[in-house]
Structures are given as structure tokens and as C-alpha cells.
Amino acid sequence: MKKIMISGATALALLTGGIVGFGGVGSSVEAAQATTTFKDVPVTHWASSAINLAVEQGYFKGYADGTFKPSSPVTKAEMASILGRLSDQPNASTQEPNNFTDIPEWAKSGVSSAIAKGFISPSNYKGKLDAQGALQRGEMATWLTQGLTVVDPEYKQALSDVTNTVVPAKEYFTGKLASAQKNAVAVALGTGLMSVANDKTFGVDRTTTRAEVAVLIARYAAVAKTNPADFQGLNELRAVGLTGTNLSVIAPKYQKAGPEKFSESYDYSKVTGDFAKVRNQELVTVTNYADLKVKNWIIVNPYVKETERSIYYPVFVDEKDRLLRGAYYSFTEFDINIKNSMNQLQAGSLINSPSINALTSPSTKAFNEYGLKHINDLLGPKGVFIEKKPVYWAHGLLHFDKSLNPGVRLTLKDGTIYTVVPN
Length: 423
Description:
Blueprint: H1 8-16, H2 48-56, H3 76-84, H4 108-116, H5 137-151, H6 153-161, H7 170-173, H8 179-190, H9 210-224, H10 232-243, H11 247-250, E1 254-256, E2 271-272, E3 290-300, H12 313-316, E4 327-338, H13 344-348, H14 365-369, E5 391-399, E6 408-411, E7 417-422
Parallel strand pairs: 2-7
Antiparallel strand pairs: 1-7, 3-4, 4-5, 6-7
């Protein structure tokens, strides 16, 4: 796909006031001639380059007083008009009618175009877009990822694949990420289209600013012409959504153990390397204190460069953490049903594995900042669990050094054995 840009005629209309811009016709502010120098956008501003490029390309105009107002919110009508002018965005194969009743006259054409290009689905609304309302980031993620599905059907598949994934945003771990927006947020994060803020939240309810939109225009253009499979983060999110683990992406050398690892009398047909068959299934435990299930299993390789890191690295690992000898980080989300009572040490004895180990949660600053539930929050006096059905994330190590007995083996109560070893 070619670089997304608006036509010359549209750009001219924007600059002369023929089409509404974020600081022009359709607002109470007099439009100013587009410029790449704004009093309130110093070169040190985080979005300076994107703002200047967006203005040069005609997506934005400055204000008559020489400002850009980068922190001002963008309305839904304004954003729809911008998206509707992306000339290289193809039209959706199935067209929905523009049945919104609250669109101002100046934005009707732009909203209709944004609908035709697949960004907005009127069927998700009840006749009103709230066109003059500020666009929130959660809705922005929905619009942009819907647009990607028109560009490449694989993005549509990706949106489906991440339904049951672990989203690396604080709202997910604290239960405040609405299911209606979860998939879009996951794909937006997995492609790098959008990111979490310093407080580790995605900010689904935060308004979208002019500066953010300038950045998103450029990012969308780049993502739209990239094969979804080229985004490691998206691959991880899809893998976790479908199987419960990102092992195949981060540590692909770990494969199903071969028949030579078992005695000749063993029924090898019961052996699997597919974690999806283990996820949320009752496991055979070494001790009998509780019934145990694994909801998710996340692997983080601490040895790679920052650009190659797992999308989950910032959630579980601090920058200061030292590299580990012969092991990757292993983080497991456990779902436990305690039979009578159980203390922390007894939890650690449920599965005899350094990787799938319910003994302790990560003690990193990152873990706390993302709001994940720590085992210490579930323990009372003498380390005894105060909840009968605790769910929490635990910390282990996935060894690959052969002297450390690498490999993972879990047995289901139905006799299925999940086992992987580094090949």
C-alpha cells in the first residue's frame, strides 16, 4: 500500500477554508494559513515532527495567533473528517449507511466517507455519534483498527484472535478494560499504533488531543502498509489469545518432546505441545492441597535488544534487572481452588516445576505499577491464603541450559501430558 496522503485538491481546500480543519471552519477560531512553526510547539515537544508534517500535508491548520494548541481535544466529527480524507484507504466491501442524526452540516461528507472506508460502524451506535463530543482513546482505537481490517483481512483475523489475550495495559489487570474495546486496544498496542502512558494505563476514557492525532496519522500510514505478521507484539498477543502462551513467539526452540523422552510402553498419542489443551484445564498436582489451573503463561527473554523485547517485558521486568544465566523469565497466571487451607509454601509444592511455580509473584516495580494482583495480597497470618479461590500471577524461570534440566511437563487429570523441551 502506498503512503497514505490526502489529495492536492483537498489540501488546498483545507488551507483556504473550503473543508473544516481542527483550527478552522466549523469552529469558533479563525483559520490561519498552515505553518510549520508554532509558538506553543517547540522543537523539544514530543510530537513536534508529527505536527509539522501533518500541517504540511494539510491534515491540520494552525490558529490565527500562531499557535497549534497541541493539547486541545479533538471531536468525533473532526476526526471522522480527517479519516474520511485518507485517499489511499480503500472502501469497505460492505457499506453501512450514514444514519447518524447529530452530524453538523460541515462534517456530513467526511463522516460518510469515514464510514465508507470502514473506520466507523454506525451499527455500533444508536443513531447518534455524539459528533461534537471529544473523541476518547478507546473509541479511537476502535476506529483505527476497524480501518486496518479493510486494508488487510489479516487484521480482522487478528482482532478475533486477541479475544482471550492478556493486554499489557493497567486497565486490563485491574478489570477496567471493557470487553467491547479490549480487542481494539490489544491490536493498537500490538502494532505500536498506540501505547500506554507513563501511569501504565491505555487511557480508554482520556480525550484524544490534536498532538496525538498528528502522530496517529503517521503511525496509521505505516501500520497500514505493514504485514500484520511483521509485528512481534501483535504475534504475541494473538498467540496468547489463542493458546494462553507466547512461547512459540519468544522461545520457538521449545517444542513438543519427542517419543524418545518416554518409555516404549507409554501411549505417545497422549502427549501434546499445544498449550491451548492445557489452558484452564485441571492439572495433576504433586500435593493435594488444591485443584490447579493455568490461565496464561508468559515468557520474557531478557537477553535481546530493547526493540526485540517481548511486549510483556515492561509489565513484569524492571530495566535494572540483571540478565539470568541459562533461563528466561516465566510468568504464570494461576487459578487455584483450595480444598481446606493452604499456605504459600504449600502453593509452591503443587507443581514441581521451576517454570510453572505458584510460590511467589514478581517483586518488580513494573509489576506493581501495572496493578497486577500479588500473592502477598492474598495471604493472611503465617502465609495462609485468605481466599479459597485465589487467582494471581507467579514468577518462575524457563531454563534452557541443559545442565539445569530444561523443559516443562504438565499432566492433565484426563491423562494428557503437555511437555516442551528446547531443541
